[in-house]
Design a protein that fits this description.
single chain
Length: 161
């Protein structure tokens, strides 16, 4: 499977020890199968005056021996897991986690719920109206070293400058 990771640098050998905590699925290397989505993410770097690179990888189709958790939609299971990860309370760790990104409106709903300004049922109701932007998080360095293969890295151009 072809996957993309946008960063302010070329990344040929991902190392999850550099990952930040408190992300959607915890510490890991985040990618998307959607190249357009990855390229849009570059705006984050351009706004800060930094360069942006689209790093392309190939993930082996069969990763036997590693655990996978897939959230097919924004629902209560996704909400509970993301909240636990963002608070670093998640006990169920997986090697690969797939699901929607907490971005834009989704993040606003998540933020309101985490601040206890809306109840869980209201958060789930709001989330179910959203179509997930897909992310895949690799949370195991051995998996990355064995099954994730660097393809190329290209510098993206800021079309708004």
């Amino acid at each position: 499977m072809k996957l993309y990771h946008t960063s302010d640098k070329r990344i040929e050998s991902p190392d999850i020890s550099f990952s930040r905590a408190y992300l959607d699925f915890g510490k890991g290397f985040y990618m998307t199968p959607n190249q357009v989505q990855a390229e849009k993410y570059a705006k984050r770097f351009f706004k800060e005056g930094r360069s942006a690179f689209l790093n392309t990888f190939e993930l082996d189709d069969h990763c036997e021996g590693f655990t996978i958790r897939k959230f097919a939609e924004y629902d209560g299971n996704w909400l509970d897991y993301v909240v636990a990860c963002r608070k670093e309370l998640a006990h169920d760790r997986f090697d690969i986690i797939e699901g929607g990104i907490a971005d834009d409106d989704v993040f606003n709903t998540l933020d309101l719920y985490m601040a206890e300004l809306i109840p869980r049922e209201e958060a789930i109701k709001r989330l179910r109206k959203k179509k997930p932007n897909w992310q895949i998080c690799l949370c195991n360095q051995q998996l990355i070293d064995k099954h994730l293969h660097f393809v190329e890295s290209k510098e993206l151009k800021n079309d708004e400058s």
